[in-house]
Design brief:
Layout: H1 3-17, E1 20-29, E2 37-41, H2 68-75, E3 79-84, H3 120-127, E4 133-138, H4 144-150, E5 153-156, E6 176-181, H5 184-194, H6 209-214, E7 221-224, H7 235-250, E8 254-257, H8 268-290, H9 296-306, H10 310-331, E9 336-340, H11 364-368, E10 373-380, E11 386-393, H12 398-411
Parallel strand pairs: 2-3, 2-4, 7-8, 7-9
Antiparallel strand pairs: 1-3, 4-6, 5-6, 5-10, 9-11, 10-11
Helix pairs in contact: 8-9, 8-10
Length: about 425
């Protein structure tokens, strides 16, 4: 789409959708300005633009530089039209934000449903056609969860492929930068642009999108977790998942119904412990100074980390390293591991229980085990709510994730389906 078209759609629909916290009019661009329209999660620095981080008190009122990934997109011709909502300090999977407000899931204009988090606004903006692609961060599912609940593609690389410089952290051991788009090719090409060494933690790449997209998925062997090994799954989500596996089989992918030696749930608690422990150490001063204007549930999550000792955190990292070795050895026998992205469709936001995190139950494993992953739309429930198929690859194998994701997309029947926005027009 053109930047003018994007801005026109933002003016028409975002008054109710609230995907954006700031709109760039005129758009932000580099010298080329010929590429796709991009939106930027408000956890990423944009020079001279406040980085809000989903908080009432900005994380940085005037960053001196663009985040590396923002700079790379602009130099590649992408045009930025604004910054999008996030869960405060990126710490939540529902997409709720009691500090500055939460976007609407665009698949229901009558009920304010969970958009998924923490990259809530980025997913809503892409799903509503307010941009072509959006940046998100993913520490326990924060790209893939909102992609699933909003019916778009969410692509998360393994660590070391994409720079984190200029992206405010939640958990340095788990954080990754990913992209959201309406189709796998757009997401893969954006990943190619933002990938590559940065002289710091990013040491791999760049990613070759065209090679991954043109590779043949037929004959590849994937492990798909049986429903009875996934824990509690909404029946409609389960049915859409099994139908997705049948479509992959018809496309020539070999699908073995097998549970990994560690269930995806196995990673949930240790991932959460590292997240809370590291998050508290990074943000404790802010929480002590500004708790009265923060989302109280965010404060409670960080305060869990206050009670995690340095010894306990070190032990959690050692356990993680051992779990990674075991899991990487097992997944080496397959090209990918498949599951539903989220076990339930998006509930009404005013009904969510902030003491639990079912939307991240199947996604945290990718961060804990350092695996690339993608969520691809795989259908709608009877209530018209999206479901996602999660594809996790072996360590550093973003190419297989994209290849299999694109192969499924081609047979999924989704065909670029979009929500009806008539109820959001202003």
């Amino acid at each position: 789409m053109s930047p003018d078209d994007a801005l026109a759609r933002i003016r028409r629909y975002d008054g109710r959708l609230k995907a954006f916290v700031q709109v760039f009019d005129p758009p932000l661009m580099g010298d080329l300005a010929t590429g796709p329209v991009v939106a930027i999660k408000d956890l990423f620095d944009v020079a001279d633009v406040p980085t809000g981080g989903g908080a009432r008190v900005p994380l940085d009122t005037s960053p001196a530089h663009h985040a590396v990934v923002v700079e790379r997109l602009l130099q590649a011709g992408y045009v930025a039209v604004g910054k999008t909502h996030t869960v405060e300090l990126a710490y939540g999977a529902w997409g709720a934000n009691r500090a500055v407000g939460a976007p609407w899931n665009p698949w229901d204009s009558a009920v304010h449903r969970a958009p998924g988090g923490s990259s809530s606004g980025s997913a809503v903006a892409v799903a509503a056609g307010l941009c072509d692609v959006a940046l998100g961060s993913d520490t326990g599912g924060s790209v893939r969860i909102p992609a699933s609940t909003c019916g778009v593609v969410g692509l998360k690389p393994g660590r070391g492929l994409v720079s984190l410089r200029g992206v405010h952290p939640l958990s340095p051991a788990l954080d990754t930068v990913g992209v959201l788009a309406r189709d796998v090719a757009t997401a893969a090409h954006a990943l190619e642009v933002i990938s590559g060494p940065d002289g710091e933690a990013a040491t791999r790449g760049p990613f070759d999108a065209d090679a991954a997209l043109s590779a043949n998925a037929a004959g590849r062997r994937v492990a798909a977790i049986p429903l009875d090994a996934l824990g509690e799954i909404d029946p409609e989500i389960g049915g859409l998942y099994l139908a997705a596996l049948d479509r992959l089989r018809a496309a020539g992918v070999i699908v073995d119904m097998v549970a990994p030696p560690q269930t995806l749930d196995h990673s949930f608690t240790p991932n959460g412990m590292i997240m809370a422990g590291e998050g508290w150490r990074i943000w404790k001063d802010r929480i002590l100074d500004h708790a009265d204007v923060m989302d109280p549930w965010i404060v409670r999550r960080f305060e869990v980390g206050r009670d995690i000792s340095d010894t306990q955190l070190a032990q959690a990292h050692l356990r993680r390293a051992a779990d990674q070795r075991d899991f990487h050895a097992w997944i080496a026998g397959y090209d990918a591991l498949l599951s539903p992205t989220c076990p339930i469709p998006a509930p009404p936001l005013d009904t969510v229980d902030e003491t639990v995190s079912p939307l991240s139950r199947l996604t945290r494993a990718a961060n804990y085990l350092d695996l690339p992953g993608i969520s691809v739309p795989c259908g709608l429930t009877n209530a018209g709510l999206p479901a996602g198929l999660q594809i996790l690859g072996g360590p550093r194998d973003e190419a297989a994730v994209v290849t299999i994701g694109a192969a499924f997309e081609a047979v999924s029947g989704w065909n670029g389906r979009t929500p009806d926005l008539a109820g959001f027009a202003t």
